[in-house]
Design a protein that fits this description.
alpha+beta, about 500 residues, Beta-Lactamase, six-stranded mixed beta sheet, binds adenosine-5'-triphosphate, five-stranded antiparallel beta sheet, Helix Hairpins, binds magnesium ion, rod-shaped
Length: about 500
């Protein structure tokens, strides 16, 4: 089993270069070229054959007309034979010359420059009188003698012979048939020439194409190989590697840019993750340090007073509460990261907001205002949305003094979205901080300076909940110059509006 596995791996390695992009691209280019060259070859090969054959046919027709002319106008067979013999005598026998002449005179006499068809009669000096008896006649000779009118091809001396026969008409009567033939070997020769040229030029072109294709593919796939190396080098500890490919913005460049920006995001995410862990540890350590300090002070005291115990108890309780809240918030964010934060249901908007607003007014001594409420239903997780509103309201309360304004408005946007906004008349959030306040553990400098206040998770939790609903959250400034933090949710279905209320600050 393991032997087979290793030999499999070996053959895998052996064939890896074939499966590589470079080899495949080079092979594909060569294959395309091979098919194109093959098609071009077939077309040229056939075209050349047709062209040479047409030329031969044309020459044969011209020659046959010339023979016809030379036969004269004496239509007696004897005179025709004599005229034909005179014409043939001027030509050399076929074989020495390229042309075959064959005149079939009415009455059966054949005159030709092919010796086999018209051998000299004994004692007769004339060329071309046919005295062949059937017993001496070869198949080739018979084929020539009996060839049809018009164009045909017969085999003579193991070569194809192109033949043209035409009737000699005198006074409206056919008196003889003139045949002219020429070896069609030149067609084959021309075609072999084409084949040789294609073989040499084609092989060279193919070789060059394979080389160029390989070089081109090497160049093209270089960023891909760099990407593979970079990906192999990237570890959670070192995300600083980049491909940084230059050159035209082709698909490979787009891919490598996407890879680089993915690494950017990963690096950023890892850095934030590290920061988050560091911040979380710091936030958890602070109350622990306070608790330990308090306990140590208490332990060092010889005679512990009841009052000191009460004080330490109070401090420890506060810090433990703070830790509990922190751990709860962290758990909630972890659940958000795992995508199981919200369980949406149908919320009857107006009663839900009114009840929520009432509970907010009990939390602090502020001027709470509630805007006009739309009637309708919202598909959302009631408890989570209430948690977001409470977080925003707590921030507004924390950043305003007694009698400060805390206003909640709920406004439909379009047909199916709704905006919740919390506005205050506090110092507001500086424009450059408005995106970052939603980051985990982010607090503006002023908030950081204050000893009180939370860990900087309230808005991060609000964002996680809103985004889990498919909505978005953003900060701006309120008409009073304070902060306005709003979120928009989808899944709203309107049914009318209900008048707003004002809740005077409790005194
Ligand atoms: N209404 C506001 N006015 C001014 N600054 C605000 C307001 N709301 C939020 N901020 C700023 O945004 C920062 C982040 O708010 P967030 O609610 O996330 O954290 P936090 O209130 O400091 O702590 P936590 O909510 O965890 O108790 C705050 O520290 C504060 O600097
Ligand atoms: Mg907060």
């Amino acid at each position: 089993m393991s032997v087979r596995g290793s030999s499999d791996r070996g053959s895998h390695r052996r064939w890896r270069w074939v499966r590589g992009l470079r080899a495949r691209l080079a092979l594909a280019i060569s294959l395309i070229l091979f098919v194109s060259l093959g098609t071009a070859f077939i077309a040229t090969y056939r075209g050349t054959g047709t062209q040479v054959r047409n030329q031969i046919d044309q020459d044969l027709k011209t020659d046959a007309r010339a023979v016809d002319d030379r036969l004269g106008y004496d239509t007696r067979p004897r005179a025709l034979v004599t005229a034909a013999e005179i014409y043939i005598q001027d030509r050399r026998s076929y074989g020495a010359t390229a042309r075959l002449y064959l005149i079939r005179v009415r009455g059966g006499t054949i005159v030709s420059n092919l010796p086999e068809l018209s051998p000299e009669e004994e004692g007769d000096q004339r060329v071309g009188r046919d005295v062949l008896g059937p017993r001496r006649e070869s198949g080739e000779a018979r084929a020539l003698r009996t060839a049809d009118l018009g164009l045909s091809t017969v085999r003579v001396n193991d070569e194809p012979l192109r033949l043209y026969f035409v009737s000699v008409i005198r006074g409206g009567r056919k008196v003889a048939e003139v045949g002219v033939g020429e070896s069609a070997a030149s067609v084959g020769r021309a075609q072999s020439g084409v084949a040789r040229t294609f073989l040499v030029a084609g092989s060279l072109t193919l070789l060059v194409a394979i080389g160029l294709g390989f070089a081109f593919a090497t160049r093209l796939s270089k960023p891909l190989r760099r990407m593979a190396t970079t990906a192999a080098e990237v570890t959670a500890g070192d995300l600083s590697q980049r491909i940084g490919s230059r050159g035209p913005r082709d698909e490979v460049r787009v891919l490598s840019d996407a890879f680089d920006s993915m690494l950017d995001r990963l690096e950023d995410a890892f850095a934030r993750q590290r920061g988050f862990v560091a911040d979380a540890s710091h936030e958890l350590r602070t109350p622990l340090t306070v608790i330990r300090g308090q306990l140590e002070v208490l332990a060092r005291q010889r005679d512990v007073r009841q009052e000191d115990v009460r004080h330490v108890d109070e401090v420890v309780r506060t810090e433990v509460l703070r830790m509990e809240r922190l751990v709860e918030d962290l758990l909630l964010l972890a659940r958000a990261d795992e995508g199981e934060l919200v369980r949406p249901g149908t919320v009857d908007l107006a009663p839900f907001v009114e009840e929520l607003f009432d509970s907010l007014t009990l939390t602090a001594d502020r001027r709470f205002e509630l805007g006009e409420l739309p009637q309708g239903r919202l598909i959302a997780d009631e408890d989570r949305i209430a948690q977001v509103v409470r977080n925003l309201a707590r921030n507004a309360v924390e950043h305003t003094g007694p009698q400060g304004l805390v206003r909640l408005t709920v406004t439909p946007l379009g047909r199916s979205r709704i905006e919740f906004a919390l506005e205050d008349d506090g110092p507001g959030i500086p424009p450059e901080q408005r995106d970052r306040v939603f980051d985990r553990f982010h607090r503006t400098d002023t908030a950081r300076a204050r000893r009180t206040g939370g860990a900087g998770l309230g808005l991060a939790i609000a964002r996680a909940i809103v985004e889990a609903h498919g909505g978005r959250i953003y900060a701006s400034s309120s008409p009073e110059g304070g902060a306005r933090v709003a979120f928009v949710l989808p899944g709203f279905r309107a049914a009318g509006r209900r008048a707003g209320r004002e809740q005077p600050a409790r005194s």
